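During the no-cost extension, the postdoctoral fellow (Dr. R.K.) reprocessed legacy sequence entries with the updated structure-token encoder. One reprocessed record is reproduced below for audit purposes.
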Amino acid sequence: MVKKQIGIFSGSFNPIHVGHLILANYIAEFTLLDEVWLLVSPHNPLKEKEDLLDENIRLKMAEIALEDYDNLNASDFEFTLSRPSYTINTLDKLSINYPNCIFTLIIGGDSWLDFHRWKEYDRLRREYNIMIYPRLGEEVIIPAEFSQHVQLVKAPFVDISSTFIRESIKEGKNMRAFVPSRVYDFIEENKLYL
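Re-encoded structure tokens follow.
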């Protein structure tokens, strides 16, 4: 039986924005992956927790954003894991729960530069495939010994951040072009980020 190739794109998605969708859609359509799962993280251990909306609200926004995509899925998988959620634990548990899938971690070039700070990073890059998407102004260097499991994806550059969107909404700016339309409606209806 052929195993399904699943990309794991983990993030706080606070809020999910068009940059996330462009990247996930590109990877699902232009690489060997069958699907991309956007895992909403309860809390990234390397990031501050302030300004982080409740995980269920962020999941709801991700679900709304992905309604029209067959090969992109929002996931609450990390909600039931011990916290803080470490990527190696998540991938190990996913592999146990979904034995018919092969998981590839999707990270940005900035995360690759910081990869040595990740829990069990050496095992992570030995046992799992890693797909790195470039960020503007950052050179991604993959040492030869990791080239079997780590690859750079020539995805489009999209320089949008959730922080920029949150701060702009707080300032009363219209950010509809940066967020999927139905998600923006949800943000307005629920008076989020004000």
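The chain has a mean pLDDT of 93. The chain has seven helices and six strands. The remaining legacy entries will be reprocessed before the final report is submitted.
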